[in-house]
Write a structure and sequence with these properties.
The complex is a heterodimer of chains A (286) and B (369).
Chain A (H helix, E strand, L loop, with lengths): L8 H13 L2 H25 L9 H17 L3 H17 L4 H19 L2 H4 L4 E5 L2 E4 H26 L3 H10 L4 H30 L7 H32 L16 H19 L1
Antiparallel strand pairs in A: 1-2
Helix pairs in contact in A: 1-2, 2-9, 3-7, 3-8, 3-11, 4-7, 5-7, 8-9
Chain B lengths: L9 H26 L3 H15 L4 E2 L5 E2 L4 H8 L1 H19 L7 H24 L7 H32 L14 H34 L2 H4 L11 H17 L22 H9 L11 H6 L18 H28 L25
Antiparallel strand pairs in B: 1-2
Classes of the chains: A mainly alpha (286), B mainly alpha (369).
């Protein structure tokens, strides 16, 4: 089985160079690829930094994040959701995550969810609360829109803090600890590796095509180029799956997957998780 | 369409997980039985491929761009069960590692996009493509429609989930606790975008890539197109023969019907009072006193060898029906075979070294799919 192909500084620089040089379809696609690679790269870097959450077992972090995300999703009061968000921000800062990462995340969330939530302040039926440009804002509309935003902001912050402080292979091991079927965990792990391989392949294909272009292509030809790239990528994917299968078989793989057992959680780690669950349960019940 | 955390209530998320698990279980069993040790490499590589093509910005007519999910393509190439697993894994990675879609909403996203989308796409593909040749335009259209239907079915389910939230989850003052819009707003808001731009992007990617594969690597399409191009698959042919035999045995059921079929009267029927009553009953009370002259004249031009499905050599009407069905079916098959043989005769001789358009390239490697 081929080893992981992780993004590195060289790829990141190349991407930025390409993104600045390209326009249109290539620009946008490379922008998306750049975003994914940068995000993964910065998560790898920050998870390797020393910090509060980086020192904690991945299983405890995953279970803790799960409890807090569930509590935020089930909460019906703004105060509780904002309280959880404050905890998430505190943990992020204690784990030396950069403000820029957090603010970029929040800007994206507010833009996307704000676009969805904004009409709700006018459209939700209820008691009138304020009037703007002839439109009536209702109490119920204001509450539901702000609650939605607070909840999405909190859960996305928690998810980001978890991923940014935990190397991906530890996340996979943590999934296994929560009795996710071993086949599913191995599947996710292999897929994660090949995503970066395909990103590199796509990048090479797009760069190769771009280097042969003398000017801007009409939309129909750009469309044809995009579809042909996807087609070639699919053919390569199937070829690769055959190669990987043969490589796995040559190493003794016969369809059964086995993983090493983890050490059990310590009493202290169990106590922290139980206390968190109890606290969240009480907060929800009140 | 990736639902973030906070838009669906925890109970909706739980129901979505519970709905997705049986499909995952069945899919895992079916695909593992079919692929054995190839299961892990094929599904993981195709999941990675799906993840990457979700990042492609496809130029659409009108100057805008759109993303495709690859759900149609997965269903066309891998089939519904392997396709739903591959897309599910891609969605889980998007949610867990890249924050695209919520962690509590993974079940809902997988159910909507990977499960409903794949099943719908596969159904439409098989329905429209039928047994058409591998390189046909019909198969191309089928792939495009599969992608279009798959993404729109997923969007509709997502919209319904959103629209049910304010109905089911609100506080005492009527404030919606999760997604705030009712079905009347959520369904059109979601579907307008998907019936147009997103659906079109999915159509283009599915049809475009299938067109590309038809020309360059048709072997990839063969797995989900049994019987295409080379005739019916053995299994399908057996089922067809069995169905035909059952239909032939059941033909005497036609004797149970009373009266005569409208418009299929013989000239003699107009002279019989009983038959005239039947004709009048189904013709708004009108029955000509005598048979129309044209009918009288033309009906005698040809006398069928087995009139009324009753061969003169048989006394039993039921046996007569079955024998007529067998004779008719045999004649149809004979004519079809003659026409096929005539149509298959080459008009221009193909050069001996020419490769059929849908054959694998010579230098292509064998594929373990």
């Amino acid at each position: 089985m081929p080893g992981p192909v992780m993004p590195g500084p060289v790829m990141s620089e190349g991407l930025h160079h390409l993104v600045h040089r390209r326009k249109g379809f290539l620009d946008r696609t490379l922008g998306e690829i750049s975003h994914v690679v940068d995000r993964s790269f910065s998560a790898e870097l920050s998870s390797a930094n020393g910090g509060f959450l980086q020192e904690i077992d991945a299983r405890v972090k995953m279970a803790g994040a799960g409890i807090l995300i569930f509590t935020a999703a089930a909460a019906q009061s703004h105060a509780l959701v904002i309280g959880i968000w404050s905890v998430a921000v505190g943990l992020a800062l204690a784990s030396r995550l950069q403000w820029r990462e957090l603010t970029t995340l929040w800007a994206g969330v507010l833009l996307f969810s704000g676009f969805i939530a904004l009409p709700a302040i006018f459209l939700t039926p209820g008691e009138p609360w304020a009037h703007i440009l002839g439109l009536t804002i209702t109490h119920q509309g204001w509450r539901t829109a702000t609650m939605l935003l607070a909840r999405v902001l909190t859960t996305s912050t928690l998810g980001s803090v978890l991923v940014s402080t935990t190397p991906w292979h530890q996340l996979l091991r943590a999934m296994r600890a929560f009795r996710l079927p071993v086949v599913a965990v191995v599947l996710i792990g292999m897929t994660y590796r090949y995503i970066f391989l395909f990103i590199q392949t796509t990048l090479d294909m797009l760069e190769g095509r771009q280097s042969r272009l003398a000017g801007a292509l009409p939309a129909a030809q750009r469309r044809t180029m995009a579809i042909a790239t996807v087609g070639v990528l699919m053919s390569k994917a199937f070829e690769l799956s055959s190669d990987v299968h043969l490589a796995m078989q040559s190493r003794g793989y016969r369809g059964e997957v086995h993983v090493l057992d983890e050490r059990p959680l310590s009493a202290k780690e169990w106590a922290v998780l139980l206390a968190l669950a109890l606290l969240c349960g009480v907060a929800l019940w009140r | 369409m990736h639902i973030p955390d906070g838009y669906l209530s925890p109970s909706t998320c739980a129901v979505a997980y519970a709905s997705a698990v049986p499909f995952w279980y069945v899919a895992m069993g079916k695909v593992k039985r079919r692929l054995h040790s190839r299961f892990l490499p094929l599904i993981s590589v195709f999941s990675a491929f799906s993840f990457v093509i979700m990042m492609f910005n496809l130029p659409l007519p009108g100057g805008t761009t759109g993303h495709a999910t690859g759900v149609g393509l997965a269903a066309v190439v891998l089939g519904p069960w392997a396709g739903m697993l591959a897309i599910s894994v891609a969605l889980v990675i998007q949610a867990v590692f890249f924050g695209d879609g919520g962690i509590t909403a993974i079940g809902a996203n997988c159910f909507n996009i990977a499960i409903v989308g794949s099943l719908m796409a596969s159904f439409v593909y098989r329905l429209v493509a039928g047994l058409s040749p591998m390189g046909s335009t019909r198969r191309l259209l089928a792939a495009g429609l599969a992608g279009y239907a798959g993404i729109n079915a997923a969007a509709l389910i997502t919209a319904i989930e959103f629209g049910l939230q304010p109905l089911l989850f609100h506080d005492a003052a009527g404030t919606p606790l999760y997604a705030p819009y009712s079905l009347a707003i959520a369904v059109p808001a979601m579907m307008i975008g998907h019936l147009t731009f997103a659906g079109f992007a999915e159509f283009l990617v599915s049809a475009g890539v299938v067109s590309y594969l038809q020309r360059t690597d048709p072997g990839l399409l063969a797995r989900e197109a049994p019987g295409a191009d080379i005739g019916l698959a053995t299994g399908s042919l057996k089922r067809l023969w069995a169905g035909l035999a059952i239909l032939m045995i059941l033909t005497p059921l036609g004797l149970l019907a009373v009266g005569s079929a409208w418009g299929e009267w013989a000239p003699a029927d107009f002279a019989k009072p009983e038959s005239r009553r039947e004709i009048a009953a189904v013709s708004q009370g009108q029955a000509p006193a005598i048979a129309p002259a044209g009918l009288e004249r033309l009906s005698s031009i040809w006398t069928a060898p087995i009139p009324d499905y009753a061969p003169p050599i048989l006394k039993n009407a039921s046996f007569g029906y079955v024998l007529s069905a067998m004779t008719g079916t045999g004649l149809i098959i004979l004519v079809s075979l003659l026409l096929s043989a005539f149509g298959a005769r080459p008009r221009n001789a193909r050069p001996s070294n020419a490769r059929p358009s849908n054959a694998r390239p010579r230098n292509a490697r064998p594929r373990n799919v």
